[in-house]
Amino acid sequence: MTALVLDRHGWLKAHPGVTRAPSPNHDARAAGDDAFLLVMHNISLPPGVFGGTEIVDLFLNRLDYDAHPWLPRLRGLKVSAHFLVRRDGGIVQFVSTYKRAWHAGVSAFAGRERCNDFSIGIEMEGTDTAPYTPEQYRALAALLPALRQQHPLRAVRGHEHIAPGRKTDPGPSFDWERFGRENGWFRRQLPPA
Known about the structure:
Layout: E1 18-20, E2 26-28, E3 37-43, H1 54-59, E4 83-85, E5 91-93, E6 99-101, E7 108-109, E8 112-113, E9 119-125, H2 134-150, E10 155-158, H3 159-162, H4 176-183
Parallel strand pairs: 1-5, 3-9, 3-10, 4-9
Antiparallel strand pairs: 2-6, 4-5, 7-8
Enzyme class: hydrolase
Organism: Pollutimonas bauzanensis
Subcellular location: Cytoplasm
């Protein structure tokens, strides 16, 4: 995937492999807040199942809870992320990067709580234990320059790092060394080894 570009409203410009699916699950950032933290997640719905519509449907509040016995536990949940990176490298954008997506929940980073206030959330279609695909890493390499051009991102963490004991994603299968190398992060900007 070639480099991506954000427009002045925080949405990716039209590009093959990029889909826009605006989620109602967001709100405004506080005045003066901009995203300086990137938060990596993983998601699969039902757990361990890839390629369906369930993730998008969850973020758009239209999930069919009766489609699988595991799904009713999500009933009433209102969540989103800025982006979803599919197993094939396709990217779905749900929320403008200038808005607060509801991805981190109870969380803290560098002594500050409520990471949604100052972060951009990227969901990787996957699980803690299934290796992420080369296509997903390539999609991240196309996406990150656009994000860094418009936002003062200075650190990246997994959900597991900002909500320890509550979350485990993106898990041990996420290759932080590769991610850092391919996206120009300094070691100090990545999670502690």
